[in-house]
Write a structure and sequence with these properties.
- Helices cover about 35% and strands about 25% of the residues.
- It is α/β, with parallel strands linked by helices and about 300 residues long.
- Bound molecules: adenosine monophosphate.
Length: about 300
């Protein structure tokens, strides 16, 4: 097993200008682990309630994801998130966050998963993220994500997480909120001073910015004609990125750039349908073809 993903498994109620879906499978760990499963061996650590449907558990298994860490909390209900997007699909408006079983999530890593080399702490309570960090033995890299909800409600724990990870992936609004800086490069410098060696800022349809103390790298997002639901774009980016990194087993600047492009590729599929409608049924050649299209999109020679 190469990559462990800790995060939320959710039922989402989502409205976009193109439709509405009720209680569909979502959650940060769901999108992330399915995206990563196209590249490497993945295990998931998350909690669900008694209402979690058998067919939804099967989705993880169909993708070969190790679900020994997908625990059912007796008597509880699965985390539920309700969100809405206007025509600016870059910004999700949270209408409701019912933490349910996620409120009492005390992640317990099975012994067999404690030596996993790549650890991704997807968006979940920073207290749960810390608990997992403490249970892992010498991971090669720890990366994490978070969101406005936790920046507002758990800032102190989040700062502790930042001091213990190498890589942070957040979106642009969150980078500004966390750092209290409007300019993204300044925001990145400030966040890097709190611990992470690398920051990846997700900018929705504008792409991604990677900042380290001595390098900046930027890519666009893949331009699509039809986008239905951006929910999970950040998580599927993270899954493609971490999955590719784990399989290349290198943290060189070139491998990181390559992994960022794979993150973009996976996120581009995710937004083409609700839930796992598109992301869940990819073939290797779909990924390869879009990767090549992405290369052409960003290539230029000497004039
Ligand atoms: P994103 O990739 O940022 O679009 O993430 C969307 C996913 O985040 C949705 O499927 C939600 O279920 C999940 N989510 C929303 N709020 C939270 C929260 N406070 N903690 C953990 N996961 C959340």
């Amino acid at each position: 097993m190469k990559l462990l993903i800790v995060g939320s498994v959710a039922y989402d109620t989502v409205k976009t200008p193109f439709g509405r879906r009720e209680r569909i499978l979502g959650g940060s760990a769901t999108y992330c682990s399915v995206a990563a499963s196209y590249f490497t061996d993945v295990a998931v650590l998350a909690v669900v309630g008694e209402d979690f449907r058998e067919e939804d558990r099967a989705v993880f298994e169909e993708h070969g994801i190790d679900t020994r860490g997908l625990r059912m909390h007796p008597g509880g209900k699965t985390f539920h998130w309700q969100g809405e997007y206007g025509y600016d699909l870059n910004e999700a408006h949270t209408l409701k966050t019912d933490l349910n079983v996620l409120g009492a999530f005390e992640p317990e890593l099975p012994e067999s998963l404690r030596d996993i080399p790549y650890l991704f702490l997807a968006n979940v309570d920073p207290r749960s993220q810390l608990r997992v960090i403490e249970q892992c033995r010498k991971p090669k890299i720890i990366a994490a994500d978070t969101m406005n909800f936790w920046i507002d409600n758990r800032r102190k724990d989040l700062m502790e997480v930042l001091s213990r990870i190498q890589l942070l992936l957040i979106n642009e609004g969150e980078a500004r909120q966390l750092s209290q800086e409007f300019n993204l490069v300044r925001a990145a410098r400030k966040i890097l001073s709190w611990g992470p060696k690398m920051l990846i800022i997700k900018r929705g349809e504008y792409g991604v910015l990677k900042v380290t103390p001595n390098d900046i790298f930027a890519t666009p997002a893949y331009p699509l004609e039809s986008v239905f639901d951006p929910t999970g774009a950040g998580d599927s980016f993270a899954g493609g990125f971490m999955g590719h990194l784990a399989v290349s087993d290198s943290l060189s600047a070139d491998h990181i750039r390559h992994a960022i492009v794979m993150g973009n590729v996976l996120a581009s599929f995710n937004v083409e349908d609700f839930s796992l409608g598109r992301l869940g049924s990819l073939k290797k050649e779909d990924i390869e073809n879009r990767y090549q299209a992405f290369r052409r999109l960003t290539q230029f020679g000497e004039a």
